[in-house]
Structure formats: C-alpha cells, structure tokens
Give the backbone structure.
Amino acid sequence: MHSQLLRLAGGTLALTLSGLGSTQAADYYVDCSRTAVAGTGLTERDAWSGLDRVNDRTFEPGDSILIRRGTRCYGMLEPKGSGLPGRPITLGAYGIGPRPVIDAGDLEAAIRLFNQSYWRIRSLETVGGNPFGILVSGDVDGVLDHLWILDVHVHDVGGVATNKESGLIVVTPGSPSTVFNDVLIDGATAHSTEQWAGILIGGDDFGGTPESPRSTNAVVRNSMVYEVHGDGIVLFQVDHGLIEWSVVHDTGRTPDRSVGTPNGIWTWMCGDCTVQFNEGYRTASPWRDGGVFDIDFGCSGNTVQYNYAHDADGYCVAVFAADGWVTKNSVVRYNICANNGRHPSQAKQGDIYVLTWNGGTIDGLSVYNNTLHWSPAEDAYAVNVERAQFTGDRPRILKNNIVYSTVPSLIRIPAGSGLSFDHNLYWYSGPFRPRWQSGLDTANDFDEWKRLGQDANGLYADPLLVDASGESTLATRYAFSLQRDSPAIDAAARVEGAGDRDYAGNPVPTGLSPDIGALERRVPRAGGREPQPRHRDWRS
Amino acid sequence: MNGRRLMRKAPIPVCFGLLLTLCADTRPRDEPVDLGPLASLQFVNIEGERISMREFAGAPLLLSFVALPRPAGVPERDPNRSQVVFLRSMVEQYRHSGLQAAIAVCADAAELDGGFRPRVVNFRHDSGLADLPVFADGHGHASRAFGVRELPTMFLMDSSLSIEKRWNGVALPSQLSFAIESALGKDLGAIGTPRRWRSSGS
C-alpha cells in the first residue's frame, strides 16, 4: 500500500511539474458556423471554424476554449494539455442561446480527455459517439486531478453495450494504477443510449479488491439520467463519493443480461460514499436487480439516506456482499419507498433487499426510519434478507421503519442472522394473514413474530399514513406523513448517530421521542390551506 | 401551459427594465369570479411576450421561483440548481396528466447590472428548460406578490390559481409528487396496479 501511495504522489508531481513554465493564459474561440478560415482563434471575430485546430493544440493552464452557442461542430473534441491548481483549462461556450453541439457521429466519443488534469467542461451538448458521449480516461501511473463536467447535455450515444464501461459520461481509468481525484459532475443531463451507463466514475475493467487503488472525492450532483440500457449513476472503486440531488428514471432497458443486471444509482467498492436526496423511478432489469439504490459488495461506510424510490421494477434499496469480501457499516435511513416491485420476477427481491453470495459477508447494517409502501406485482417479502451471511460485531439493526404492505409477506430473514428488529410498525392492508419468516419459522401474527425474538417494542397497526390511507394529502400537508392519530408518533427509539432531521428536513424529534418512519409528524396549518396573497400585498 | 401555447401569442414590445408588469385588475367581466387573487398578475417571458397568470387557469400549475444559479460547480451546493432538477422530474411525470409548470428567475441588483437577461436565456438552455415558460423577475415584483421570502420557493396552484401548496426551500420529489397527484385528482387508490413492463424483460 505504501508503494502505491508513493506512486500516486509521483504521478501528481509529474503532472504538476509539466505545467510549470506555462505562458500567459488565453481564450480561444471556435465558431463552427463559419466557413473554413485560418483564424487565430484569439477573438470571436477571428474564431476557429472547426475542431481540428483545437485538437492540434496543447493548451496551457488557465486557457479557455469557448465554442459559440447555437452552433454545431462535427467530430471528436480531444484537446491536449493540463491545467494547474487554481488555473484549470476551461472547455465551454460563449454567446447567448442554446449550448453548442459537438456531433461525434460514430467516433469513439464526442469529447475525450486522456491523461489530463485540471479541466472544466461546461455548457456543451454532445450527440453521438460510440461507445462514449464524454470520456475522461488515462493510463498514467498516478492521479488525474480536478476534472469537472458541468451543465452538459449528453445524448444519443450509439452502439450497443458490450461491457459496463460504456455510456454517456464515463470517467474511467485505462490502467489498474490510474485513479482520479476531485471529479465533479454537476448539472448534467444524460439520456438515450443502448450503451451501459448514464454516468460512471471509476471502473472495474481491471478487476479490483478492497485494497486496489481507488479514485477519491467524486461527486455527482443535480443531474438527470434516463433512457439508458444499463445503470443510471454509479461509483466504482471510489473513496469519499457522493451522489445527491439527482434523478434517474427509465434505466436498465437492456433486453438481456449478457453485460449485467442494472440499477438506478449504486456504489461498488466504495469507501465512505453517500447517496442522498435523489429520486429514482421506472428502473428495470432483464433479470435480477432493477432496483433504484444499491450498496454493492466491497463497500465500506456507505449511507443511502433521504431518497425517494418509486415505481421500480425491482427494489428500493439493496445491500450486497460477495466474493469473499466484507461489506461494512452500511446505513439505510430516512428513505421513502413507494410502489416498487412492479415486475413479477424482480418483486421477489423485496423493497429492502439484503443478499450475500460467494463467501461475501456483511459487517454492520443499520436500516432505520424508512417508510415503505409495498405494493408489488406479486406477493413477496417487503424486507428480504436472503441467504445473507454476517460477520463482525457491528450493529445489525432494522429499527423504526414503517412497513405498509398490500401483500401478506412482510419480513424474511435467515436463521441465526443476528439481525435485531425493534420499534418497527407493520401493517398489511389485505384480507389474509400477514407473514414474517425467520429461517424455517413462520409467524402469521405479530405476537408470533415477537415470540421469535423480534420487535419487542414494535407495533402492528395501521400507521395512518397520508395517501396510503386514502386521506387527502392536502389535509395534512405532507405526503407519507402521519395523520394526527397515527400510532407511529413518538413510538420510535433513538438511534445513535441518526442525525437530527427527517426526510423533509424537519427536526427530529418534534415530540418526546422520534416518530417511526421517514417523516416526523408536524402540526398542519390551521384551516388546511395555504394563505392566499391579498391584492394589496403586491400592489403596495 | 406549454411553450407552444406561449409562442402563439403575438410578441409585445417591452422595455427589459419592466419585464414583469403588475397591472390593475383587468379581468373580463365574464371571467369566472373564483380565480385566485394572483390571476391578474402579468409576467413577461424572456422572449418579451406578456403572459397573464390567468392563462394558466384550468389546470394545476407548478411555479418555481429560483435565484439565477451561481456559476456551476462551485464547491458548495446551490439549492436552486437542485430545485430545477426536481421540477423537471415532475414535468416528465405529470405533464401528460395536465400539469403545467413555469419558472420565475429572480435577481438582485448586482445581477441586473451584469447582463441579467442573457444569463437567464443561457440558464434556460443550460438547465434543460427550453420547453417551459421562463420568466425573468428582474425587479422582484412577482416574488413580492407571491410573498417569496427565500429562494428557491415552489408553489402548486390549483386550476383556479389558488395556492394549494407552498414549499420554502427545496421541494423534495415525494412531497411534490403526492401534492400534484392530489391536485390532478389522480386516483391514489390505483397505487399497486402493476405498470406495464417492457416485453423485453424476462
């Protein structure tokens, strides 16, 4: 490990030194609507008329390459050079109007950076490329630093996926010793491809173990991904990753599982990674998965919180361990899961799905204060801990969750799992008997579940949720919030390290104890409607 | 409201300094009397067309007031950018059920001095809002009329332009979704009906 660090540091130093002695920064203009001229590129009036001049040049720290808005350039944009800390190279747009379009046709990518650092790509639209829309890669023995991709629209990448490292925006190493640091993708819209990923940071082309070099400080934020054949947004082999305030939908459209089984947003071999404040829906898969969120195997210290997952073919959130590695310290909290399990075969996975295989184990699992409205296409367990092997002495708790189900199957756990359920509230709204299963033991009423050693302080009662009960949303003002007489109010246990806010940002607790579920009960506004502005308010 | 409907209107020349004009109540006498008090408010969109709030009457409207986002990629998160993402998600999910949406971009004095309108135009394109009405509330008339105290603020208005719901700060998608479903009168009991999955799935 020590030698890896030295190698990575050396890579950074080499890149830094390469930028010394740079000339004064310049702005270069590109106007692809101009007829071919030999401009200097240094003014808008003397702009370059195509991408060739850009691709031929090695840019200096602080330079900007600005493409005229409302124009369309053909080819692959692959400028050379690297910036420096505080002096990145910008690839952006000038003028007023729609983002300039880079039309790559069937070339490898519309924009390609290779072995380059300190770049900011901003306000560009790309169409085409095969198998990438935007590709950032490299094969240096070290770190590629500060690669920001902002406000881009990437779509219609051609071809069909043959591996997971393809798609719309792909930041992936080209060698096992190449990693990235400070990757930010903010405000991206990526859609429409039969390649695999919407947004991928990291990679698994070179295998990987929990000890392999990892990229660091990767953030995807404020982005939308839809209509992709594979995954929506993924972080592979990253330490300190964050995916937040983003939306994925209509992912996993691949018709077969030759490449894999996709999800909406997930992390693999990720250390200290957080997925929060996202929305995912209509996620699909040709076989297993098809879920919205997933802490996959080899992850450590991952948290999935404050998300909204609905109408997925598969699960709301999964936690996996595999191939002899330990998935450590996974936290799933304050998420709202609604109407998932839309596909009969993927519904079997449940809304919360925990699975290990090939010798993988889980050390530490905390699932608390989630609200599940489980209404699958077929009867299947809402919380399904399938064949999971646990290790270590970290907590294994499922606590303070609301499980509202329209099918009888509520919980399944393997024998001897050591999982501790408590302060959960269950409700099955149908005519049959609810079902909890622990190993070979099946409980068909709540007292039997308690006799199996679980949920001593739990409840089996209608949670009186807004919407799920049919009560008007606007009468109580918060979707999936609790009605005034809900038994979930003040019925949760405090969880160490749970934070001080609920899904909606309300303080927790608002009463003597926290409420069960993802939303704390708040007193609705008297009269039930928002106050209307008066004329004099805005005429004065 | 959609872009096509707006584009049918004849452009009305307007001084940019008066992008939003608050007019006296000029409702036709035969207009339903139960429209909310904001019905007579008028906006001017970034194409220079004057748009009356009453043009949105007849279907629920999601109206978002946002600040012109700071340059993308600053280290701290900008809630206005997040709000735009969730607004777009709601439009994607509910426009076919009749939901209308619009954005009013607010500015402070410094931004007005710095070429506000071009930045709003580019914001509209860069944020994927080209098919939505975008208003430049450069002098804050509309935000004052709505009593906006922080940005972003989101309003869900019913078909008679009364405010059904207001979110100060970022409105999260589950909150938006279920308020919209109620406003659209969608049958929430239908939850649980399997959606049509693609035949290509196993």
